[in-house]
């Protein structure tokens, strides 16, 4: 970076002049609302939690039913 | 050398700002108080380093737009919010120089030159003032940046460190080295 000019005793702008150039509406308008990552939203965790719970319950119920079907009937002790 | 109290912030003021930032993360409209508080400081920082007033106002607007757009990334680490804004301002300023939207200019007051001459233990003559003025033009950008922050704008080493991403001690060492370089150029003239 090359320093092009060095200026001595430039007139200082007044605070009133600088304040008169404030335009917050323009700043706010140009900026879209900050988006929160869907992975950080409480809705995501709620939905994920609920679906995991449902899935776990379904697997558990299904597992019981399958094991019931596969188990041979208890015939007791056969004495020859 | 006295330090400008404008850059020092109380814990209460920092906490107040933190509330505004939290609110602004949810609703950009709440960024208004921060914008009004720092608009002049950031504008002066930018305008001090360039020639054109209109470009300085444009770059200032870009700084606040960028700050608002990236506010969700801001994390409080014990340093004032203004330091984060200054870092954005520095980056936008040098981008404007690269894009040739603005020309790098150093603006100095006569009394600031005399203060440096005092640091060199030289007499405040018109000849020394001219000599120092010429010596400044021989400095590299990095050294000039440090001198501007420390000796022209009277910022604390902590503040300089926060703006330039240096430790407080490193900012102190580098500032004095920059002054030493200037002194060397001055004495060789």
Explain the layout of strands and helices.
The complex is a heterodimer of chains A (80) and B (189).
Chain A: E1 5-8, H1 15-20, H2 24-30, H3 42-70
Chain B: H1 11-26, H2 32-47, H3 53-69, H4 81-98, E1 105-108, H5 110-119, H6 126-136, H7 141-152, H8 157-164, H9 168-188
Helix pairs in contact in B: 2-3, 2-4, 3-4, 4-8, 5-6, 6-9, 7-9, 8-9
Question: Could you give a quick summary of the protein structure above?
Answer:
The complex is a heterodimer of chains A (about 80) and B (about 190). Chain A has about 80 residues and is mainly alpha-helical.
Could you state the order of secondary-structure elements of chain A as H and E? Answer: EHHH
Quaternary arrangement of the chains shown? heterodimer
Largest sheet of chain B: none
Task: Kindly report how far apart the N and C termini of chain B lie.
Answer: 26 Å
Please report the two chains with the greatest interface, counting residues with C-beta closer than 8 angstroms to the partner's C-beta. A-B, 28 and 40 residues
Give the DSSP E fraction of chain B (strand runs of 2 or more residues).
Answer: under 5%
Discrete helix count of chain A: 3
Q: What is the overall silhouette of chain B?
A: elongated
Strand fraction of chain A: 5-15%
**Unreliable residue stretches of chain A:** none
Could you estimate the helical fraction of the residues of chain A in percent? 40-55%
Percent range of helical residues of chain B: 55-70%
């Amino acid at each position: 970076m090359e320093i092009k000019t060095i200026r001595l005793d430039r007139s200082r702008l007044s605070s009133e002049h600088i304040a008169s150039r404030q335009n917050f509406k323009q700043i706010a308008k140009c900026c879209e609302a900050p988006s929160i990552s869907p992975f950080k939203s409480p809705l995501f965790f709620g939905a994920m939690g609920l679906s995991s719970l449902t899935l776990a319950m379904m697997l558990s119920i299904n597992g019981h039913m399958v094991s019931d079907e596969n188990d041979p009937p208890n015939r007791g002790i056969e004495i020859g | 050398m006295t330090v400008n109290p404008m850059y020092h912030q109380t814990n209460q003021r920092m906490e107040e700002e933190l509330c505004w930032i939290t609110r602004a993360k949810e609703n950009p409209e709440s960024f208004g108080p921060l914008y009004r508080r720092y608009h002049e400081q950031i504008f002066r920082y930018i305008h001090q380093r360039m020639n054109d007033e209109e470009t300085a106002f444009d770059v200032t607007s870009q700084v606040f737009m960028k700050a608002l757009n990236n506010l969700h990334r801001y994390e409080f680490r014990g340093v004032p919010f203004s330091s984060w804004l200054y870092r954005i301002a520095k980056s936008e300023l040098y981008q404007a120089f690269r894009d040739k939207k603005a020309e790098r200019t150093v603006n100095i007051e006569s009394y600031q030159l005399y203060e440096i001459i005092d640091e060199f233990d030289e007499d405040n003559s018109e000849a020394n003032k001219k000599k120092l003025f010429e010596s400044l033009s021989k400095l590299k950008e990095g050294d000039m940046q440090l001198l501007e922050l420390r000796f022209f704008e009277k910022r604390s080493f902590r503040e300089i460190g926060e703006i330039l991403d240096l430790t407080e001690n490193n900012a102190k060492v580098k500032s004095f080295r920059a002054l030493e370089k200037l002194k060397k150029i001055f004495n060789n003239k």
